[in-house]
Specification:
Number of helices: 15
Distance between the termini: 40 Å
CATH class of the largest domain: Alpha Beta
Strand order of the largest sheet: 9-10-8-7-6-5-4-1-11
Radius of gyration: 21 Å
Number of domains: 2
Bound molecules: S-adenosylmethionine, iron/sulfur cluster
Largest sheet: 9 strands, mixed
CATH superfamily of the largest domain: Aldolase class I
Helix content: 25-40%
Oligomer: single chain
Shape: globular
Number of strands: 17
Strand content: 15-25%
CATH topology of the largest domain: TIM Barrel
Length: 375
């Protein structure tokens, strides 16, 4: 028997109803309908090809259907995908299976269908509860649509729901940002991803920059928001991730702990250990080319890069990481970080824990400066 290895599965769905001007994900506005069946078939072929590359028996730990907008797909297509995965891999009964949903693309019947297909965690992209703001963000739904989607998802049986909310939006006041948080909290989400809007190259906002709140206003939103979320029992466990007890995202935790994952779908990337090396695999990016062939491209990650990538991810977590995880997921020895630990600790950005290392609150706030200390 080959050894077993924990591994997560990311599945990318590259279509959206419309492209939002702030978004640099591999997502494309649907023009002539979505070839659902052909795409699902290609995803499974893609999975077969990844599984054939593994030199260990994979032990699936989570599945995440992200995008793009997976909720544009009909439940029957998601059910066919889940059946195909189960034919290829063992699914533990308690495994977290997340799907991202855009409130403008869903209804109660669809949610019910996703639950029946086996999806047990939903991530709803709300972004804001202010209709004017939603328009400026190019969203296809209103605040009321988002609240309705949340309630419909609960009624359909989702007991684990994340809301994606952004802050630092164009022209946003402190009161408006806090109002968004209150409306999200009123719905009682199990998890909240609270992202500060960033302006990314190759987006509409990069070409035509909106006026964003100044640094003082951003700081006020950030610090008041953190206080409010803590009071509401949504505990911060990563820079932008907040959860009620027991509802941290297993899939995202695996990324932040630098665990292995397969990535299937247009432009998806995976990362896993093979033959004693750590490798990254990427798939054809454009949906129409992917439908011809996923064409996986693999490259080995060198030791220096592994160390930096591990730290970039793990130090985002409030709890930091254990030396056991560092050694298991990087293949490197603790001693390789001695100089970094000493410098970071001296500057008050790092603290050693009984079993490992964590960024201090100051270190999390100035993560980029902290990472510059890695040699
Ligand atoms: C792949 S998208 C989500 C799902 C779905 N397509 C939707 O928008 O409803 C993941 C999340 O990243 C966040 N996001 C995307 N672009 C961002 C940006 N430029 N700055 C901050 N957050 C961003 C949004 O909150 C978004 O919901
Ligand atoms: S934010 Fe979501 S809906 Fe908007 S373009 Fe990106 S992936 Fe699509």
């Amino acid at each position: 028997m080959p050894p077993t290895q924990p591994i997560a599965l990311y599945i990318h769905f590259p279509w959206c109803t419309r492209k939002c001007p702030y978004c640099d994900f591999n997502s494309h506005a649907v023009t002539a309908g979505i070839p659902e069946q052909a795409y699902i078939q290609m995803l499974l072929r893609d999975l077969d090809s990844d599984l054939a590359q593994l030199d260990v028996e994979p032990r699936l730990t989570s599945i995440f259907m992200g995008g793009g907008t997976p909720s544009l797909f009909q439940p029957a297509a998601i059910a066919a995908l889940m059946t195909g995965i189960k034919q290829r891999m063992d699914l533990p009964s308690s495994i977290e299976i997340t799907m991202e949903a855009n409130p403008g693309t869903t209804d109660y019947a669809k949610f019910q269908g996703y639950v029946e297909a086996g999806v047990n965690r939903l991530s709803i992209g709300v972004q804001s509860f202010n209709d004017q703001q939603l328009q400026a963000l190019g969203r296809i739904h209103s605040a009321a649509d988002a609240a309705r989607a949340f309630t419909a998802a609960r009624t359909a049986g989702f007991s684990n729901i994340n809301i994606d909310l952004m802050h630092g939006l164009p022209g946003q006041s402190l009161a408006a940002a806090m109002g968004d948080l209150e409306q999200a909290l009123a719905l009682g989400p199990d998890h909240l991803s609270w992202y500060q809007l960033t302006i990314e190259p190759n987006t509409g906002f990069y070409r035509f920059p909106p006026t964003l709140p100044d640094d003082d206003a951003l700081w006020a939103i950030y610090s008041e928001g953190l206080t409010r979320l803590a009071t509401a029992g949504l505990n911060r466990y990563e820079v932008s991730a907040f959860a009620t007890a027991g509802k941290q995202s297993a899939h995202n935790l695996n990324y932040w702990q630098f665990g292995d994952y397969l990535g299937i779908g247009a432009g998806a990337h995976g990362k896993w250990k093979s033959l004693g090396r750590l490798q990254r695999t990427t798939k054809t990016r454009a949906p129409k080319d992917y439908l011809q062939t996923p064409n996986p491209k693999t490259r080995v990650i060198d030791a220096e890069q592994i160390q930096l990538e591990f730290l970039m991810n793990s130090l985002r977590l409030n709890a930091g990481f254990s030396w056991a995880t560092f050694e298991a997921n990087t293949g490197l020895a603790k001693a390789s970080l001695d100089a970094f630990v000493q410098q970071g600790t001296n500057k008050g950005l790092l603290a050693e824990t009984p079993t490992g290392l964590q960024a201090t609150p100051l270190g999390i706030q100035f993560l980029n400066d902290l990472l510059l200390l890695v040699d």
